[in-house]
Amino acid sequence: MKSLYEIRFSGSGGQGIITAGMVLGEGASLFDGKYVVQTQSYGPEARGGACKTELIIADYPVNYPKPILADILLAMSQAAYDKYIHEIKDDAFVVVDSSLVQYKPAKGVYPVPITKLAAEEVGLKVTANVVALGVISSLTKIASYEALERALLSRVPRGTEEINKKALALGKKLEFKDNV
Amino acid sequence: MKSLYEIRFSGSGGQGIITAGMVLGEGASLFDGKYVVQTQSYGPEARGGACKTELIIADYPVNYPKPILADILLAMSQAAYDKYIHEIKDDAFVVVDSSLVQYKPAKGVYPVPITKLAAEEVGLKVTANVVALGVISSLTKIASYEALERALLSRVPRGTEEINKKALALGKKLEFKDNV
User: Fold this and answer.
1) How many domains, chain B?
2) Residue in B39, B63, B67 nearest the CB of A38
3) Which residue of A has its CA nearest to B39?
4) Model-level pTM?
5) For residue A14, what is the domain's CATH number?
6) CB < 8 Å to B157, chain A
7) Which residues of A43-87 form beta strands (DSSP E)?
């Protein structure tokens, strides 16, 4: 494990990208003892358009974020993938929603049909952001599964706890192979 | 109106400070046509402790935030007030939850018993963050009331729309006087 990770979650408005970042940030800090800074930008074009949040998760206090080369990239839309795939470190983990994105196979690129899994396995497409978190936890160990689950359950609307737990748990079942 | 505002919302964990910032950021960008960058930090100490989010709302695209002197400060806890009251511009608006904070009267400092109003007028203490947003909109015009309401309603759990609208609307009824 490194002592500092730069993380970028990106996709379209309405996919819950920023919420996923908040769950990761809260989980890593409150329950895993890390320091986290999270940034999101909104523009007039954000409506249904590109959307991203960036986190720095570190073992020590961090001040303000700078434009980053990601250690971990989540790309949930074609536009997000095209825009950010080159802004990564050599040893980055890249998780691509292969049900939405045409990607180029490469070392460190993990295609997972996230939105399709959310619709078919969880039964609710809008849980794709939570499925993505489960995948990232399972693959990268950036936050413990327990921390994410606690942060998730403190944030989701009452009555949706079970379906969200199911969505998060999906990631644990997957086997990851570099797509090369 | 200035063309760029620096805004700091601060309080305790669990008060919905970060959510309030997201509603403001989404409202200002999606419905008022502004550019927004929002940052929040979490530390292991955040649990029940200090909590803040910072936004830059501008008429033009902004990159990354720097440590800021606020144009608008919301202080929902004593610790937040004590920590940030000196990090403001000369012409800043300061909104203090006077039901929770001992503050020093000064030009630009607006005491509002936010949490008390949420409990007594709305009937639900946890809407204090939404009451605060209504107060800030009414006082500073940083985002239009309509934009905030649309952003709010797209974010709150189904079934809580009416109580959240009521909480936001409270700010419109208040009369503001500098407390000097």
Assistant:
1) 1
2) B39
3) A39
4) 0.86
5) 3.40.920.10
6) 157-158
7) 50-58, 70-75
